[in-house]
Each structure stands twice: as structure tokens, then as C-alpha cells.
Amino acid sequence: MVAGMIGTEIQRAAMAATVPMPLNGFMRPEVPAHLLTWLVGEKNTHLCGQVVFVDGGADALIRGDSTW
User: Fold this and answer.
1) Are 56 and 25 in contact (CB under 8 A)?
2) I need a labelling partner for 48 at 20 to 30 A (CA). Which of 7, 11, 22, 41 fits?
3) What's the pTM?
């Protein structure tokens, strides 16, 4: 999905400078895959109708303390 945006080192550096990622930078596809596996699995018995950000902390950093 973003291969064209981060295919070269220059593009990766531009993305890293634009989008804050305080928790370990770029992630491999396996990282959100673990969450998705849990979300659709039998062990997820109570989570429903939530927005789950898997963005390395970017949303929390940009949004700050105010959610409104």
C-alpha cells in the first residue's frame, strides 16, 4: 500500500520526518497482523466498535491531551 511512498531511502526519510513514530519507527506487516488475529479470534470477547490506532504512537503525539 505504501511501497511507492517508502521505496527508497530518500522517501523513507521524508516519511519519517513528516509522520512522527515515537514507538520504534516503521513496522513490519507482522506487527499489525498479530492485532488483527486477536481481534477476529475467540479470545476477543469484549472489544467492539473501537478505533484502534496501530501507528507507532503518531496519533497520540499529534492529537496530544485533547481528544475533542
Assistant:
1) yes
2) 22
3) 0.59
